[in-house]
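Lab meeting, item 3. Inverse folding demo.
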């Protein structure tokens, strides 16, 4: 959702409070709290069904029934006409420059939750699972990706983090709209 919200604002050439429903995408698009979801499924859902605004189906941190969305959700839906993915460092950089923010995934370890600033590298802790984030940029010197996390502005560097290239399987693929 973070990637789509940014792309919409870029395409409209205007910054505004674009707030789409993570719950609609997650609970109606094949996700579950126990299993999560995959980027291919979510981008396909956004292209075929679309996603509504946050007020139509607010997110709660529990399993929600897709029927909990506003009855007029179809009148409020946003769809995309294109979607795709890029692979490997150079392809992802090219897609970022051409399409804007991307969806990417990586492996999360216990200590990632305590990230505050700097360039993240896995140092300690057990594997927690996979996690998807919005890839917003990169810096070749010294070599890291710039990502927006979904955990709010109170986490990390105001909701963002930098992660070293090739760390925790980050950016093996990036998905765009």
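The presenter then showed the designed sequence:
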């Amino acid at each position: 959702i973070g990637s789509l919200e940014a792309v919409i604002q870029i395409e409209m050439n205007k910054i505004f409070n674009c707030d789409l429903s993570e719950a609609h995408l997650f609970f109606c698009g094949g996700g579950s709290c126990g299993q999560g979801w995959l980027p291919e499924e979510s981008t396909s859902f956004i292209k075929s069904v679309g996603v509504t605004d946050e007020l139509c189906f607010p997110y709660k941190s529990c399993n929600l029934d897709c029927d909990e969305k506003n009855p007029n959700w179809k009148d409020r839906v946003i769809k995309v006409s294109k979607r795709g993915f890029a692979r490997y460092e150079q392809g992802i950089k090219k897609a970022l420059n051409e399409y804007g923010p991307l969806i990417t995934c990586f492996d999360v370890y216990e200590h990632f939750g305590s990230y505050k600033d700097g360039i993240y590298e896995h140092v300690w802790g057990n594997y927690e699972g996979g996690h998807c984030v919005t890839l917003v940029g990169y810096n070749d010197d010294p070599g890291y990706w710039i990502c927006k996390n979904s955990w709010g502005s109170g986490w990390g560097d105001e909701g963002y983090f930098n992660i070293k290239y090739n760390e925790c399987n980050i950016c093996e693929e990036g998905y765009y709209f």
